[in-house]
């Protein structure tokens, strides 16, 4: 009697294929997604990294182009984009005063730049075939380091050597322990800024790509798009808010002790 050959379980075979597809998309998302922009292979960068650079340029072009258009068509009676720009400017100025006080207004350009780039960088990824620059750890880490170096520099320039006094705490006998804890806390700030933004944007973007890759059209995709829209707004607000909080702390370092 001929030996009976076992056949693989169909469900197990499908699950294996799905797992491989998910792994391939997560490893090289750019290779499994039709890009809105042509991939320019930049020296020393992979396709994914080159696309991140391209969409970073696109975000900057959108920001600069919009602002140039609004300024060149400035009117006494605002309307359209000018109205939005004025409302956003007024909102950020009021928020800076609330958090940092009037002495924080000179740092409005940094706060506004962070808000605009993070916001536009987040929402660029919602365009079909696009990649969010903020869904890449290199981008978020770069912005976190810019904020970190900037507010530390402001603290040193404003207070001199006295700025480092707050690292030792108010109780002299506990100064060594407080110094170690404060240094760890200070270094954790750019890390948390970078990882929080990156993880939220990358996670939402990846889920949407996986849903589309399996042709799941309908409520799941609509819900994830809506969820990502809200998440991106919240993450933009949090990143700019923490920028103001850290700057405010550096400005008020001498008032704390």
Give your account of this protein's structure.
This protein is an all-alpha fold and 257 residues long. The protein has one domain (46-255). The protein contains 7 helices and no strands. α2 packs across α4 (108-124), α4 runs antiparallel to α7 and α5 runs antiparallel to α6 (175-213). The longest helix is centred in the C-terminal third of the chain and has 39 residues, at 175-213.
List keywords for this structure.
257 residues; mainly alpha; 68% helix
Gyration radius from CA atoms, angstroms: 24 Å
Largest sheet: none
Compute the separation of the termini in Å. Answer: 92 Å
Order of helices and strands: HHHHHHH
Q: Into how many domains do the coordinates divide?
A: 1
Write the layout of secondary structure elements.
Blueprint: H1 10-27, H2 47-72, H3 81-100, H4 108-124, H5 137-159, H6 175-213, H7 219-251
In short:
This protein is an all-alpha fold and 257 residues long. The protein is built from seven helices and no strands.
């Amino acid at each position: 009697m001929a030996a009976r050959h076992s056949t693989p379980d169909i469900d197990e075979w499908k699950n294996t294929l799905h797992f491989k597809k998910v792994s391939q998309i997560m490893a090289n998302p750019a290779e499994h997604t039709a890009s809105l922009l042509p991939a320019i292979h930049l020296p020393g960068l992979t396709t994914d990294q080159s696309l991140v650079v391209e969409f970073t340029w696109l975000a900057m072009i959108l920001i600069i182009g919009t602002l140039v258009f609004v300024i060149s068509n400035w009117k006494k009676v605002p309307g359209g984009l000018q109205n939005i720009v004025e409302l956003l400017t007024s909102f950020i100025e009021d928020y800076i005063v609330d958090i940092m006080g009037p002495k924080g207004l000179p740092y409005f350009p940094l706060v506004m730049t962070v808000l605009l780039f993070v916001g536009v960088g987040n929402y660029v990824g919602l365009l079909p075939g696009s990649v969010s620059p903020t869904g890449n750890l290199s981008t978020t880490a770069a912005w976190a380091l810019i904020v970190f170096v900037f507010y530390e520099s402001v603290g040193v320039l404003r207070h001199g050597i006295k700025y480092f006094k707050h690292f030792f705490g108010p109780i002299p006998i506990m100064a060594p322990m407080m110094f170690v804890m404060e240094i760890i806390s200070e270094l954790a700030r750019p890390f948390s800024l970078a990882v929080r933004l990156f993880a939220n944007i990358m996670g939402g973007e990846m889920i949407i790509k996986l849903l589309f890759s399996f042709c799941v059209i309908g409520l799941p995709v609509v819900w994830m798009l809506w969820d990502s829209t809200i998440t991106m707004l919240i993450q933009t607000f949090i990143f700019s808010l923490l920028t103001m909080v850290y700057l405010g702390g550096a400005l008020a370092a001498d008032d704390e002790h």
